[in-house]
Fold this sequence. Notes:
Layout: E1 12-21, E2 24-30, E3 39-40, E4 43-45, H1 52-64, E5 67-81, E6 86-99, E7 110-117, H2 127-138
Parallel strand pairs: 1-6
Antiparallel strand pairs: 1-2, 1-4, 2-3, 2-7, 5-6
Amino acid sequence: MTDSTPPIPQPRVGCGAAIIEDGKLLLVLRRKDPEAQHWGLPGGKLDPYETVANATIREIAEELGITITLTSLLCIVDQIDRARGTHWVAPVFRATIQTGTPAIHEPHALADWGWFPLTALPTPLTEATRQALAMLNAFPNRL
């Protein structure tokens, strides 16, 4: 007799950064699932043996062609989707741009980007972005 119970998925590790300048948040528009056509914080996935901080810096450089400095850890996002059988854990940092101007460098993954006032964000937002914004709103001194 075989067990037909699906395997329990292992959590995967992502990363992201909240980059805020002059009261505006840098967001990217996702092309790919999950959450295609949702606006979200720039970031991505860790490679094996890569630190979360290095992955965040690398992913944002690859996506947007900018060099960032991480200034603090904003929050840890848990995104659990039992229907899809996925669980993502993603540290989200506060960061500043050191060099470069944002531009789409991965058009297969991102459709657009922009700076948005924290009081007038586009919709829909990714789950990770909503969780990070909840932390920013709960602790406004983290801006």
